[in-house]
Amino acid sequence: MPLWTIHGNGRTVEPGKVVKPDERLNWPATVAIGAQHVIAMFGATFLVPVLTGFPVSTTLLFSGIGTLLFLLITKNRLPSYLGSSFAFIAPVTAATASQGMGSALAGIVAVGVLLAAVGFIVQFAGLGWIEKLMPPVVAGAIVALIGFNLAPVAWQNFQQAPITATITLVAVILGSVLFRGFLGRISIFLGVIVGYIVALLRQEVDFTQVNELVANGQWVGLPTFQFPTFGSPGTWSVIAMFLPVVLVLIAENVGHVRGVATMTEASVNQYTGRALIADGAATVLAGTFGGSGTTTYGENIGVMAATRVYSTAAYWVAGVFAILLSLSPVVGAVFNSIPAGVLGGVTTALYGLIGIIGIKIWVDNRVDFSRPVNQYTAAVSLVIAIAGFTMVWGDFQLGAIVIGAAAALLIYHLGNAIARWRRTGADDGGPLPAVGQLGGDPQDSQVK
Predict the structure, then answer these.
(1) What are the residue ranges spanned by the domains of the chain?
(2) By CB count within 10 A, which of 48, 52, 113, 436 is most buried?
(3) Model-level pTM?
(4) What is the pLDDT of residues 136-168, one digit of tens each?
(5) Long-range pairs of 168-177 with CB within 8 A, sequence gap ≥ 24
């Protein structure tokens, strides 16, 4: 594993250059940038356990450990922070409600094992097979349906304190359009802070657990550990609900690696397989001991783009900070005290944004929605997810996410096969051609 070399004078980034993964600034600057990464990941990472009922401190601990594990497996060449994945929220919520947290943790472990297995295949066979299995219209549909499936959960929290929820939602939106750069990228975190203050003023916050810990002097302590229950009768039907999450994590990790490669050097792409293996291993570790499943974080890509520092040294600092933060039960209790109104406001935006990420995949890849195969791939899967379709056979149950993902894959591949056999023109004909110029100033047409 290579050591870091000092970039330039060690204090500043040279004009027109970036600090590469195997470089670093001096340690005070590196620590400061590492702290920025902690702030960037924090708003999203703590929300997942709060929304799913998992211990916040446990999730933070394995988020930090997972990040360090990721850096080791990727040979210290791929800068990334592993935070809580929003893709797990829907299946974890459903699994916890029906079978308990042990079964939900089993689902997280299963996702991690499968993701790591995919990583090994990618490491030796490349990414081509994934792109054929999950083309843009399918990938976008699966990501979108996971977000939109959560809409009823957001409404349940929202209606418990509509005023607080509305103020929180407005704060999130205002933060994203009012502030530039880093503050704009953590608008969800800022919205939670504003909402929490409003909830305090409206006396909606319960400090019972926090007061007990402070009174007993429990400022430092190990997080709570919980374990998966693979032997539970309903666990295997629960695991089926988690399988579509693997496709989302693949898309997120591949996108992360390509983003870093674009901004640093193309050779980073060779670590795609290792990234998938590392995220899978970190997810297995987290699920084994009671933490949320992990993924690479776009929030931290934003910090790297803003600072032009892609040094993995900053992520070692961030991982250690997260571990230290997790060792305070009081910190975990404060985040667990966030009331329903605040969660309702922030998740109205957050769950919708997950859906929009899927739609952005369609836009970026110029999916042709004049083709019936593409139309029905997206339409059917989204309605299944939003309506909450379920199928039950005795103790075995399939939820809306797995049904929707299966529908997207089946409609696309079987529909294309039939349309091409019959030559009806209903198949996916590839991306739409670009219309008009791709850049520069608008050109005024002259009437002759």
Answers:
(1) 5-368
(2) 48
(3) 0.79
(4) 899 889 888 888 888 888 898 899 999 999 999
(5) 168/192, 168/194, 168/195, 168/198, 168/341, 168/342, 168/344, 168/345, 168/346, 169/345, 169/346, 169/348, 169/349, 171/195, 171/345, 172/345, 172/346, 172/349, 173/349
